[in-house]
Write a structure and sequence with these properties.
The structure holds 2 protein chains of 2 kinds.
Chain A lengths: L10 H27 L4 H20 L3 H19 L6 H24 L6 H17 L8 H10 L17 H6 L24 H26 L5 H19 L2 H20 L6 H25 L14 H7 L4 H21 L3 H6 L1 H22 L3 H19 L6 H22 L9 H14 L4 H10 L7 H4 L3 H12 L3 E7 L5 H11 L5 E10 L2 E10 L3 H11 L6 E5 L17 H7 L12 H30 L2 H12 L3 H45 L2 H12 L4
Antiparallel strand pairs in A: 1-3, 1-4, 2-3
Helix pairs in contact in A: 1-2, 1-4, 2-3, 3-4, 3-5, 3-8, 4-5, 8-9, 8-11, 8-12, 9-10, 10-11, 12-15, 13-15, 13-17, 15-16, 16-17, 16-18, 17-18, 19-25, 25-27, 25-28, 26-27
Chain B lengths: L3 E6 L3 H12 L4 E7 L2 H11 L3 E4 L8 H8 L6 E6 L7 H8 L4 E4 L9 H4 L3 H9 L10
Parallel strand pairs in B: 1-2, 1-3, 3-4, 4-5
Classes of the chains: A mainly alpha, B alpha/beta.
Chain lengths: 719, 141
């Protein structure tokens, strides 16, 4: 159905766009009439293309789908003359003149009536344009793809037939479910798989890309048609998908084949169910996603072929060329949607309940953001905004990691995203208006995006973990690789009073050694906390941090057994920063001597036992862990707006009392659990504080020597 | 659930060993290929028939970026870039993403743990399961 959009637009904007539309139509018509005299005037073709392109952009902004669709096809036809060297024949010019006249008429009617034109007003002309585009597309006309590629294919196995022998270790079931072997390489291949080691014939690739680019254009036009209520478009999409799939199979582009397969399946299912038009809204985003996937596959195919390998310069490897066949206009909608996602993420992170985390909503939104950012990236490339493109892809990377759960979205990210949207919109608007884009901010934004990973570790919880790590003298790099899991292990070991060691290991030289070492590191009593990679000269070493109740001697013995020459493994004990007088008293010094120095009145006496000191450090570890828990729970609770959540539940249930009850109960259950956790932690903190007070009193009452002695013993238990 | 085939491409034999050990703890996964660089990987692909490739970036011979560029559109196997030199947003990560890596995991910051028990719930397995459309498998620690 034609949509009424006029009422929603401010009158002034509408009138400006309409005037601009009329101007563009007039310059297009002027160019066409001159081209009728001199069809080879390339500059004039460029003027024509730009005028129609701008017209299409304008009517799209006005929300006029039918006129936009007509203009889109006209643009595709002109593009053949501009980019593919197709001569503008007089019948093409006549058709384009008709299109311009009809567009002008429709625009006038729309202005008078206030709503978009009906699809059938443009249908006939669109068909004529499509026919002419197909007739004049180089790959489907002068050099049919089937003809040029078929001879090479005949000697190839049929696609889908498994050709490589399975390895012995695998069962029948594996073989059935493995992906079908790539069978349709262009070059004969003794292994029977795709021609991965042999480059593709550049001409075939170029032909394929021209054909695929045109297919992408058709798909885009069909999606536009679908959007304005022309259900026939489904059949068009299906036939395009099938057609391109055949060509992709012959070239061995497996990923593209899979995407097209999916497109074919969904459109066929949709066409068969004869879905009513109100389902278009649901179907369209999915199809648009597939559209992006196809586009991306084509860019990957382009990337396979280096510019020097192509027969006609680097045109086929130019993403912009492909993009024009697709949709450079979508960037406006993409940026708007990205902004919406930032809002959604803000809400989600503000209410980070268990339900939200389990439902994976943040991840889903992040996934969508990543796809949008990739599309925005291509738009930036198209508009020659290199830094903006870099920024988009950097953000896409971050959102991809949020979608994977590797990073967590927070307000820093959403704020950054909004700033990026503003800057990207500004730059793109400027380019489209033909003025120099403001680029000053991009370098800074890229840096901010790159820093995001480090920014997120600035939270109080991470500061606590870092200060815990500071207990030991560790290489700084260990702090960078500590995950919450590693921290938990570290803390557990600290509480258990285990010793910490680092083992610098050169494991690349000797397979037996590396196997033995890894096996040992998994063994009972050895707790691997984390590891860092160390580059020394041209070698890559691993530095492992481990905790163990075993003594240094035991660890040394185990290592010497693996590495008798002491060539590849270096053991270092991690010492505590707080230890007393470490330099003055080397560890080899016998305990008796220390006792003598300390004025040995302690042993067995009523003074301070080693236990007191151990208790203090244990209590402190518990306190640190509890503080982290409390911080987490309190932040979560503080961030929840109960009233809003309850209102949401009530509104969302639409009067369903049972549902309100159930959802409220679930919501409150989570709340009560948090409070319960807090209660538990609070009581533990109380106990810890009591223990600390007791220990401090004991220490206060004891002579200094009584304190020093057990401290040293704690650090250096006799091996 | 059917067995999924994994191929490892990394110049560090230790890394390959560790990942192989990790993957062997999962009855649904099997390592069918383990090579040092992109060039070897190209040779080995036909034999390994992987469902998923774990790909290092900086390797002598053919690096991960070049490998990605060459094979991305020609194979159905999912490709996970696994590297210590690709923190989020770094130029290499961006390049890998641009060339169609299905996921990028930074090692070893917890993603590839040498601790088998911890690694069961790690990002590596989560990513493999997600990309291959498998249900997460619970293995008691």
């Amino acid at each position: 159905m034609a949509e009424s959009r006029r009422s929603s637009e401010p009158e002034e904007v509408w009138s400006l766009l309409a005037q601009e539309g009329k101007r563009n139509l007039a310059s297009a018509k002027e160019a066409l009439l001159k081209l009728k005299q001199d069809p080879d005037d390339a500059e004039r073709v460029e003027v024509l293309f730009r005028a129609v392109h701008s017209f299409r952009g304008g009517v799209r902004m006005m929300g006029l789908g039918v006129v936009g669709l007509l203009a889109h096809h006209a643009e595709d036809l002109i593009a053949l003359a501009r980019d593919d060297g197709v001569a503008l024949q007089s019948e093409m010019i006549d058709l384009l003149l008709k299109v311009l006249d009809r567009s002008q008429a429709m625009l006038g009617q729309i202005l008078a009536e206030g709503h978009d034109a009906e699809p059938d007003q443009a249908a006939g002309l669109i068909e004529d344009l499509q026919r002419m585009i197909v007739q004049n597309t180089p790959s489907s006309n002068s050099q049919p793809l089937h003809g040029s590629v078929a001879p090479a294919i005949q000697s190839q196995p049929v696609s889908g037939v498994r050709v490589a022998e399975p390895t012995n270790a695998l069962t029948e079931s594996t073989i059935e479910t493995s992906p079908p072997a790539v069978a349709a390489g262009i070059q004969p291949n003794p292994r029977g798989t795709c021609s991965l080691t042999v480059p593709d014939d550049p001409r075939s690739v170029a032909e394929f890309l021209v054909r695929a680019g045109s297919g992408l254009g058709q798909l885009h036009a069909a999606l536009d048609a679908l959007a304005v209520g022309m259900p026939d478009a489904l059949a068009q999409i299906q036939s395009m998908a099938n057609d391109l799939k055949g060509a992709a199979e012959r070239m061995g582009y497996q990923r593209l084949v899979a995407v097209l397969d999916e497109l074919d399946r969904t459109t066929r299912a949709d066409a068969q169910t004869d879905a009513p038009s109100n389902e278009t809204a649901e179907r369209l985003p999915r199809l648009k996603n597939v559209e992006l996937e196809i586009f991306e596959e084509l860019t990957h195919i382009q990337a396979r072929t280096a510019p020097q390998e192509t027969p006609e310069g680097n045109r086929w490897t130019d993403v912009g060329w492909l993009f024009r066949h697709w949709d450079a206009e979508r960037v406006v909608a993409d940026l708007a949607r990205l902004s919406e996602i930032a809002d959604v993420l803000d809400q989600l992170t503000g209410h980070s309940t268990v339900e939200v985390m389990v439902s994976g909503q943040s991840e889903k939104s992040a996934q969508e953001a990543m796809v949008l950012l990739k599309a925005i990236y291509y738009s930036c490339i198209f508009y020659h905004l290199d830094q903006a493109a870099h920024l988009s892809l950097t953000l896409a990377d971050i959102y991809g990691r949020v979608a994977q759960g590797e990073l967590i979205a927070n307000d820093v990210l959403t704020r950054l995203t909004r700033t990026c949207v503003t800057n990207l919109s500004g730059a793109i608007d400027a380019v489209r208006a033909g003025i120099a884009p403001p680029l000053g901010e991009f370098a800074k934004l890229i840096e901010q995006a790159q820093n995001f990973m480090y920014l997120r570790t600035d939270g109080p919880v991470f500061q606590v973990t870092r200060s815990v790590l500071d207990v030991l003298r560790l290489p700084a790099a260990f702090k960078e690789v500590m995950t919450p899991e590693a921290m938990t292990k570290f803390d557990r070991a600290l509480q258990a009073g285990e010793r910490f060691f680092t083992v610098l290991a050169d494991l690349e030289r000797d397979y037996t050694l590396s196997s033995a070492f890894l096996e040992w590191s998994y063994s009972e009593g050895i707790h691997l906390i984390t590891n860092i990679t160390v580059h020394r000269y041209d070698r890559t070493l691993f530095n492992f941090l481990l905790a163990t109740p075993q003594s240094r001697k035991e660890i040394l013995a185990a290592l010497v057994q693996m590495d008798p020459q002491w060539q590849y493994l270096t053991l270092e004990e991690c010492v505590s920063r707080e230890q007393v007088d470490l330099k003055a008293k080397p560890e080899e010094k016998p305990a008796q001597e220390i006792e003598a120095e300390a004025g040995a009145t302690v042993r067995g006496g009523a003074g301070v036992s080693t236990e007191v000191i151990e208790n203090i450090s244990e209590t402190l570890s518990t306190l640190v862990a509890d503080h982290a828990t409390m911080h987490r729970v309190v932040t979560r609770l503080a961030d929840q707006d109960i009233l809003e959540a309850v209102l949401c539940i009530i509104q969302g249930a639409e009067g369903d009392g049972t549902r309100v009850h159930r959802e409220l109960e679930n919501y409150l259950k989570e709340w009560i659990e948090s409070v319960y956790t807090l209660g538990q932690v609070e009581s533990r903190v109380g106990t810890s504080l009591g223990q600390l007070r007791l220990a401090t009193r004991t220490l206060q009452l004891a002579p200094v020597s009584d304190v020093l002695h057990p401290l040293h013993r704690t650090a250096h238990e006799p091996d | 659930m059917s067995l999924k085939r994994i191929m490892l491409v990394d110049d560090s034999s230790t890394m390959r060993l560790v990942i192989r050990n990790l993957i062997n703890t999962d009855p649904n996964l099997v390592v069918t290929g383990s090579v040092e660089n992109g060039a070897q990987a190209l040779e080995e692909l036909a034999h390994a028939q992987p469902d998923l490739i774990l790909l290092g970036i900086e390797m002598p011979g053919m690096d991960g970026i070049e490998f990605l560029r060459r094979v991305r559109s020609k194979i159905q196997a999912k490709i996970v870039v696994l590297s210590s030199v690709v923190p989020a947003g770094s130029p290499k990560a961006v390049q890998a993403l641009c060339l169609g890596a299905d996921a990028i995991i930074s090692k070893p910051s917890g993603a590839v743990s040498f601790d088998l028990k911890e690694a069961r719930g790690s990002e590596l397995f989560a990513t493999i399961y997600r990309l291959l459309g498998m249900e997460a498998l619970q293995i008691p620690a």
